[in-house]
Design a protein that fits this description.
It is a single chain. Helix content is 21%, strand content 32%. By secondary structure, the chain is an alpha/beta fold. It has one domain: Dihydrofolate Reductase, subunit A (3-Layer(aba) Sandwich). The protein starts with 7 loop residues before the first strand and ends with a strand. The structure holds NADP nicotinamide-adenine-dinucleotide phosphate (NAP). NADP nicotinamide-adenine-dinucleotide phosphate binds next to strand 1, strand 2, strand 3, helix 2 and helix 5.
């Protein structure tokens, strides 16, 4: 039997599907940042180069795995510099990113739009902040169809909801 590894996309998504504008987030929701930190701490976090640049650096306590077509060093932080739990790896495809991930830790796809689309067929779970707005934007999350995704948990807040889905 083929055992599929758990692979979770984590994203904040507006009502109209927007996730980004001009290389940044269209909103500032501190509770969303706090949840992102809490959920991804200690995990592998795979992201596209543009998202990495928008974050501005490796995230503490996580293995940041950045997908880019540009050649570069495989690893640009070392445990001696920043602690064993913080690493920054550069890879040239999603397959390489998945192979580089530490199998003992959970693995998240942290965006952006291009990475979510590429990982979509492999995703087993979605950890979504549903943002109750419809901002202008240039980057979108794929449609979360109820035919494919079953909601398993929902926590409402003022202006947004945390929602988990698993592949049906
Ligand atoms: N709301 C949210 O939760 C959320 C989360 C994350 C990001 N975002 C937003 O999303 C936007 C960025 O998303 P994006 O779609 O423009 O970019 P992205 O997915 O972050 O990064 C795209 C880049 O990743 C690299 N890449 C992707 N697939 C590759 C492959 N198969 N092989 C080699 N390289 C590959 C390429 O880098 P190179 O050009 O270096 O080759 C490509 O230009 C920003 O606005 C950001 O703020 C929102």
């Amino acid at each position: 039997m083929l055992v599929r590894m758990q692979l979770t996309a984590i994203a904040a998504v507006a009502r109209n599907g927007v996730i980004g504008v001009a290389g940044a987030l269209p909103w500032h929701i501190p509770e969303d940042f706090a949840r992102f930190k809490q959920v991804t701490m200690g995990s592998n976090l795979i992201m596209g180069r543009k998202t990495f640049e928008s974050i501005g650096g490796a995230l503490k306590g996580r293995i940041s795995i950045v997908v880019t077509s540009r050649p570069g060093p495989a690893e640009t932080l070392t445990p001696a510099e920043c602690g064993a739990e913080t690493r920054l790896l550069w890879v040239s495809s999603l397959d390489e990113a998945l192979a580089a991930a530490d199998p003992a830790k959970p693995t998240f796809i942290g965006g952006g739009g291009q990475l979510y689309r590429e990982a979509w067929p492999l995703l087993t779970d979605l950890d979504i902040t549903q943002v109750d707005r419809s901002p202008a934007g240039d980057t979108y999350f794929p449609e979360i169809s109820p035919d494919t995704w079953r909601e398993t948990w929902r926590e409402p807040h003022d202006g947004f909801c945390f929602v988990n889905y698993t592949r049906a």
